[in-house]
Design a protein that fits this description.
This protein is mainly beta and 285 residues long. Helix content is 11%, strand content 36%. Strand 14 and strand 15 form a beta hairpin. Bound molecules: copper (II) ion. Copper (II) ion binds next to loops.
C-alpha cells in the first residue's frame, strides 16, 4: 500500500502524456482546434491545392492577430465635369430638391480624391482559403430617397437581405440584370413600401447595377461578397478594412465611370497585427 501514491503519480504522468500526444496542437496554431482568425499557418493549404472540405473553418475575429488595410483613392488628371441631375421628369422629385444642384455621382472627386470606390479582398485570396463566413441576417438598407439610391455604391454579403425602401412620395421601380445572380424588376408605387431581396452568388467586378425605369437618372451598384472584407470610399476618398486574417491578398478597387481607367488590383501580404496603408490611383482616360 505504501507504493500506491507512486503508482497514482505514474498513472497521472502516463495519462498526461497520452493526452498531449492525442491532442497534438491543442491550444496552439495547428490541428483541429476551433478556427482562429489570425492563424495563418492553419488556414494555408498545401501549394497548388484548395482546402479540403474537412479543413473548412468558421471565421472568428481574432484581435490579437488580425491585420487591417486602409488608404485613400486618388484621381490623377482633371476630373470630368460633374453634371447636375435634371429631376424635371417627375415634379415630386424636383420639388424635393428645389433649386439645389444635385451633382451626378458617376465621378465624385474632391481635392483629388475619389468617392464611391468599392475596395475589396478577392475571395480567391490565399489568406481566405478554407474559411467559412457566417451570413449576416441584418439587412443592408437601400433607400430610394430624393429620387436617388442611397447609398449609391454598397457592398452586401451573399445571402444577406437587402431591404429596398421607398422613402419618396412617388413611384419607383427597381430592376437589375446581374451576370451571376437572378435579376428582378419590382415596383414600389407608394412611400413606405419595402421589399427584401438577396443575391446568392459573389458578383463584384463589375458589381450589380440597379436602375429605376421611372427615373432614368437613378442608378446604384451592389457588390456581393462571400466575406466581410470590403469598403466604399467616402467623401474624403478614404477606406478602411479591418479584421483581416494575416496572409496573402489580392485587393481590388473598382469605380463606375468609363471615363477613368481601372479596376485596380494590388497584391499584399499581411503579417499578424499589421496595419498596411494601401492607396489606389485612377487616371482620367
Ligand atoms: Cu425611381
Amino acid at each position: 500500500m505504501r507504493r500506491r501514491p507512486l503508482l497514482v503519480a505514474s498513472s497521472l504522468l502516463a495519462l498526461s502524456l497520452l493526452v498531449l500526444v492525442a491532442c497534438g496542437g491543442c491550444g496552439g496554431s495547428k490541428g483541429e482546434a476551433p478556427a482562429r482568425a489570425g492563424d495563418a499557418s492553419a488556414r494555408t493549404p498545401a501549394p497548388g491545392g484548395s482546402a479540403p472540405a474537412d479543413t473548412v473553418r468558421a471565421y472568428q475575429p481574432s484581435p490579437a492577430t488580425d491585420a487591417s488595410i486602409a488608404g485613400k483613392v486618388a484621381l490623377e488628371g482633371d476630373p470630368p465635369r460633374m453634371v447636375p441631375h435634371n429631376f424635371d421628369a417627375d415634379p415630386t422629385c424636383s420639388q424635393i430638391h428645389g433649386d439645389a444642384k444635385v451633382l451626378k455621382e458617376e465621378v465624385v472627386a474632391k481635392e483629388g480624391r475619389l468617392k464611391n470606390v468599392l475596395v475589396y479582398a478577392k475571395s480567391s485570396s490565399r489568406a481566405l482559403e478554407g474559411l467559412r463566413f457566417e451570413t449576416p441576417t441584418t439587412p443592408v438598407v437601400l433607400d430610394q430617397k430624393g429620387c436617388l439610391y442611397q447609398p449609391h455604391v454598397f457592398g452586401v454579403r451573399t445571402g444577406q437581405p437587402i431591404a429596398i425602401r421607398n422613402s419618396d412620395a412617388t413611384s419607383h421601380n427597381i430592376k437589375c440584370a446581374p451576370k451571376k445572380n437572378s435579376g428582378f424588376n419590382i415596383s414600389q408605387a407608394k412611400k413606405g413600401m419595402e421589399d427584401e431581396k438577396k443575391f446568392d452568388k459573389e458578383e463584384s467586378a463589375p458589381p450589380i447595377r440597379l436602375e429605376c425605369n421611372v427615373h432614368p437618372w437613378m442608378n446604384g451598384y451592389a457588390g456581393v461578397f462571400s466575406h466581410p472584407f470590403f469598403a466604399v470610399t467616402g467623401e474624403d476618398g478614404t477606406y478602411s478594412i479591418p479584421g483581416l486574417p494575416p496572409g496573402d491578398y489580392e485587393i481590388v478597387a473598382w469605380q463606375e465611370s468609363t471615363k477613368l481607367d481601372g479596376p485596380k488590383t494590388e497584391k499584399v501580404t499581411l503579417g499578424p497585427k499589421e496595419s498596411r496603408t494601401l492607396d489606389f490611383t485612377f487616371k482620367v482616360k
